[in-house]
Design a protein that fits this description.
By secondary structure, the chain is α/β, with parallel strands linked by helices. The protein contains nine helices and five strands; from the N terminus they run ααβαβααβααβαβα.
Length: about 260
């Protein structure tokens, strides 16, 4: 009887050892499989993120180098590219070319890749804008890029071009002191029909941008010649503001700079 009990105990111990060993190896194999699966998932995620980054940078390759670097930084930080658009009533927050540009960027890069904030300032000259410290508005948006349409149309006949450029520099300086990594891109307002002095102001703005190392997007070449009456179909001759067709021309011209084909 005693021997029988010993045999039973020995058998039970063997079974327990076998079961415990089986469970141990089963858990070890499962952990190994889970670790391998996690590694594969991480690798796949990294490959997907790398592919997305490359696709975004490929789209942005026509932008100035500083703008491309700012976009790359935003993508690597896994956040939207923060684009601030600022300007006069030629740059309306609702119903104008900024909305069309936003749609074009969403279509090309993917919805949400760009976070766009529009600041429209009705009736201001550059002197007014400088005094009102409008750059403080943009700093709150933590911009990567600032697309600025200075107030040349409102300055026309009111502020000399030399003073206009000095105020633009002051506005940019205030921005850069608080947001040193923000990349400034200057652009003119819309053309107007048969203007004399205004085109010279725009030429001076372009020279100012080049002399000071700011990117400059000249969209005027996309519009009808400013001496042609055809321009009145794109710019309302009463308000000097873009019509729906003019907003489309303006947005499409900028989209070609932001979106490489």
């Amino acid at each position: 009887m005693r021997n029988f009990i010993l045999i039973l105990l020995f058998t039970a111990a063997c079974l327990a050892f076998i079961i415990t060993g089986h469970l141990y190896w089963e858990r070890k194999i499962d952990a190994t499989v889970q670790a391998a699966r996690a590694k594969v998932e991480i690798s796949a995620k990294q490959e997907m993120e790398t592919s997305q980054t490359e696709a975004i940078l490929a789209r942005a390759k026509q932008l100035p180098a500083a703008a491309q670097a700012a976009i790359k930084r935003a993508v690597e930080e896994h956040r939207p590219i923060r684009l601030v658009i600022a300007g006069s009533e030629s740059t309306p927050e609702n119903g104008g070319w900024p909305e069309r540009l936003k749609q074009a960027l969403d279509d090309a890069y993917g919805k949400g890749v760009f976070h766009i904030t529009v600041h429209e300032y009705d009736g201001l000259t550059t002197a007014d804008a400088d005094r009102q410290r409008i750059a403080v508005d943009w700093v709150k948006d933590k911009p990567d890029l600032v697309l600025l349409e200075p107030f040349l149309l409102n300055d026309n006949g009111v502020v000399t071009i030399d003073d206009t450029l000095a105020h633009i520099q002051s506005i940019i300086d205030r921005l850069k002191s608080a947001a040193p990594d923000a990349v400034v891109i200057l652009q003119p307002p819309n053309p107007i029909y048969n203007a004399t002095y205004y085109p010279k102001q725009v030429e001076a703005l372009e020279r100012f941008a080049k002399d000071n190392g700011y990117a400059y997007f000249d969209h005027w070449s996309a519009w009808p010649d400013h001496k042609s009456e055809e321009l009145n179909q794109y710019v309302d001759p009463e308000s000097d503001l873009p019509t729906a067709e003019g907003a489309k021309v303006w947005a499409n011209a900028l989209a070609k700079r932001f979106i490489a084909q």
